[in-house]
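> forwarded from #structure-qc
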């Protein structure tokens, strides 16, 4: 049995905890995010190619999410994180050095970039959190995980704000030329230059990510901690995937936490991807879109503190009710499209992404054993990406239905007016869809958790509350 050090040990004095937080910041602070779509188009790609590339990226994550978690639990989390960092360096290098002009070559390189990016996301997903939590459990007090999450989300939010502000600024051709003239630099700033600057800055983050993983330590491969050596092989990883999946479906509390998280995440993320269209329809100037994005990121500096307080003082049932009310209020408020003021319900809704992310990590890590933690967290990522994709398909079918109905009932409307009208009508469906799914999950949760205490209290050893596989 491992010895757990005194609870007086600060979680931030633990090496792997600090490195986990640094990894999250460097891996996610990408300076091309504020100009993501236009950057691809300015390289010479078409909108249809951009859509295909996004589909390739999502498909790669779905295909690799769970296998990567099982490999992390089999061969070690540090090894998968180093692999993810190397992939990040490779994917950014492709963007940094790919020549413009040859459309076929350009698209092929971007396909490879999206595959590497998706594989990096899948490799990092779960492994980083598992490494940090296990270090805290081994060297400190696992009750401090909420404090670690709070600080990590705050740091990541600051990094995201800086990346958004700087990335958008350095891409602005006029601003960069003005700065060059101000500093009396004999330089003509071109689109080719501004195209590469956000990518070059992200390469710096990729190298810092790699350096962070090289500093990480792992006491032992998780699957061999019990003292009975296992053959670290693909067969072992496959068995771990099967066992983790079976454990999730036979552990009601864990499955229900994931399913509720899937519902919240998929609906909020779908609305978040369409936020610029919503902002335009509530009469917000486009110049403010970037500032609003930075403001949303800053919520990540505030929300986790309240989330930790709730998680430590309230039951999962209370938290579910609170978040549900906030999400429903935000969605209903957005359907009114109030000029300017409509930003308030949008902020209420989008802020809940931080609540959902915090609570999922808080409960799942406490309920999952060390030897399968990365695999279980990878299953969570797989569920979420499948949920988001499913909601996306349903939404595209809804848009097609609304488009056909407007075409039949209205004549002489411009394409822009039709697009706006379809979007406004589509927003009316989200609260109803969410409420129906929420009621179905509540009925299932009530039946599945009947007679169990895990929905009222979860302890450090909460896996015992939810029961072993039967």
């Amino acid at each position: 049995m491992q010895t757990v050090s005194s609870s007086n040990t600060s979680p931030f004095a633990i090496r792997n905890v600090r490195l986990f937080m640094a990894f999250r910041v460097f891996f996610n602070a990408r300076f091309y995010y504020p100009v993501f779509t236009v950057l691809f188009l300015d390289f010479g790609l078409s909108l249809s190619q951009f859509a295909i590339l996004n589909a390739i990226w999502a498909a790669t994550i779905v295909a690799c999410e769970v296998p990567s978690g099982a490999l992390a639990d089999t061969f070690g989390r540090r090894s998968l994180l180093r692999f993810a960092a190397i992939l990040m360096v490779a994917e950014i290098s492709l963007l940094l050095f790919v020549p413009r002009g040859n459309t076929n070559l350009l698209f092929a390189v971007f396909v490879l970039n999206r595959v590497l990016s998706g594989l990096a996301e899948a490799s990092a997903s779960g492994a980083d959190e598992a490494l940090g939590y296990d270090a805290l459990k081994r060297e400190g007090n696992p009750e401090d995980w909420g404090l670690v999450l709070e600080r990590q989300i705050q740091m990541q939010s600051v990094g995201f704000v800086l990346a958004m502000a700087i990335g958008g600024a350095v891409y602005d051709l006029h601003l960069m030329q003005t700065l060059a003239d101000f500093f009396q630099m004999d330089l003509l700033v071109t689109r080719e230059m501004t195209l590469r600057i956000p990518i070059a800055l992200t390469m710096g983050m990729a190298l810092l990510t790699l350096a962070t993983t090289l500093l990480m330590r792992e006491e032992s491969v998780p699957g061999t901690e019990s003292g009975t050596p296992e053959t670290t092989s693909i067969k072992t990883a496959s068995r771990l995937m099967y066992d983790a999946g079976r454990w999730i479906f036979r552990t009601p509390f864990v499955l229900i936490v994931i399913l509720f998280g899937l519902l919240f995440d998929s609906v909020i993320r779908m609305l978040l991807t369409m936020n610029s269209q919503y902002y335009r329809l509530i009469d917000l100037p486009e110049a403010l879109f970037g500032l609003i994005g930075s403001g949303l990121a800053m919520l990540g500096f505030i929300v986790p503190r309240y989330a930790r307080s709730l998680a430590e003082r309230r039951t999962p049932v209370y938290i579910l009710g609170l978040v549900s009310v906030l999400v429903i209020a935000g969605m209903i408020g957005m359907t009114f499209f109030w000029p300017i003021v409509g930003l308030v319900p949008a902020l209420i809704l989008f802020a809940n992404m931080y609540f959902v992310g915090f609570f999922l990590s808080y409960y799942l890590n406490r309920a999952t054993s060390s030897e399968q933690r990365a695999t279980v967290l990878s299953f969570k990522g797989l569920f979420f990406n499948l949920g988001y994709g499913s909601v996306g398909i349903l939404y595209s079918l809804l848009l097609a239905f609304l488009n056909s109905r407007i075409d039949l009932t209205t004549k002489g409307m411009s394409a822009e007016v039709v697009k706006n009208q379809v979007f406004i009508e589509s927003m009316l469906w989200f609260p109803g869809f969410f409420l129906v799914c929420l009621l179905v999950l509540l009925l299932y949760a009530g039946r599945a958790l009947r007679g169990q205490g895990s929905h009222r209290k979860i302890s450090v050893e909460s896996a015992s509350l939810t029961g072993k596989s039967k």
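QC bot note: The radius of gyration is 23 Å. The chain is about 75% helix and 0% strand.
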